[in-house]
Amino acid sequence: MTEEPERPQSELLADRRAKLDRLRQEGIEPFPHGFADRTEIAAVRESHENLEPGEETSDRYRIAGRMTARRGHGKAAFLDMKDGTGQMQVQARVDELAEAYEGLLSLDIGDIVGIEGTVFASKRGELSIRADAWELLSKSLRAPPEKFHGLEDVETRYRRRELDLMANEETRELFLKRARTIAEVRRWFDARGFVEVETPVLQPLYGGALARPFTTHHNALDRDLYLRIATELYLKRLVVGGIEKVYELGKDFRNEGISHKHNPEFTMLEWYEAYADYNDTATELEGLVAAVAQEVLGTTKIEREGEVIDLAPPWRRVTLREAIKDETGIDVMEHPSREELANAMGTEADEEEGWGKLVDGLLSKEVEPKLIQPTFIIDYPVELSPFAKRHRETDGLVERWEAFVGGIEISNSFTELNDPDEQRRRFEAQAEETARGDEETQPYDETFIEALEQGMPPTGGVGLGIDRLVMILTGAKSLREVVLFPAMRN
Length: 490
Known about the structure:
Oligomer: single chain
Distance between the termini: 37 Å
Mean pLDDT: 92
Structural class: alpha+beta
Largest sheet: 8 strands, mixed
Low-confidence stretches: none
Strand order of the largest sheet: 6-10-11-18-17-16-15-14
Helix content: 25-40%
Number of strands: 18
Number of helices: 16
Radius of gyration: 29 Å
Shape: elongated
Strand content: 25-35%
């Protein structure tokens, strides 16, 4: 491979711009409109995978891609070309290209080029195209990252994802798996009669989760609006309207911290099914995840941090009371004080944090990291769940579960509260938490109450974090690995 000297990017940029100027002076368009009749490299390779070393063909192809390497000099050279489907070697010879030979060799690594020629296998068995014509399709003005040997700087990989995708095959494969995951999720729901919908991203009142929203202002309406924190309330209004099996895949936004499992913009799947409860949705969730893993990975078994995790149903089920008591000795059903809960986490009780939030913090800190095998934590205190239906057997609890895999919460579900009077009381309780200074509470939504007053059938609802699911399926350790352009600090 030819190597450009280690010089500042500014000098390399100047040299490449000078080449660009020369091309235009010679009447060559460095950014043409298209390249007709192109064949993807993967298709060429598939059609000729059985060629013997040294075997020639008369089969002609037009391929296009980025030049990633160049070897040889004199009267013959080899180029490596890469498109979105694969890589192929190109042989360039003076006797085939004549005057066009020097022009091809004068191109820079990173230029996007169209090649036309015949397929053959080199003496070493490398499938190749012998070029007899070429065309510059896009002049690359900046040197590629690390000469295509891999881009390792984490900050650059996240901030300049195009360079990461260009340099790292594993990054491209990860995001292809993400795309297949989303496609399989849709296929799973569509096959079961669910209807995919789109609800507002800009909302007059946020709701459906305990989180702080992003606020914006609509000039024409002269009013503040909120980026949605969840799709829940709108989807349940659709159930009221008669769409009894409904789902939405889209972006939610929460104005909260950034960590290895939090990004202010994230992809969420929510689905609601009339006449179902949280037992039904648990069965659906474990079936969905196992089916998607099987289709995307070819197996329901994954390895994470040295431990094999089996996503196949049935998943373990344990109550929140049991899970916290086993790890901390605290029985939340005896309603320990806020100070006791804070002490168990090694912190002091914040006046702005209600009792429910402290219980949730205890679960997150002391229990969640240890839930490696797929586990449903079920039956939560009512204070943690303003939209969940009261437990049919135990006072003070609601019918809710959260699903954990690999020490990460991936999903949340309720038997949905459909009593409008009880929902009104829950909103009022949330208002008291707001008055205490808690900014992550559910505001009072009278429109939603009125919808419930129309009558909502018994319903089970689920939220599944797509980014976190992709983390689990790909073995990624951070959400930023599976989000193409994650939020970054300045």
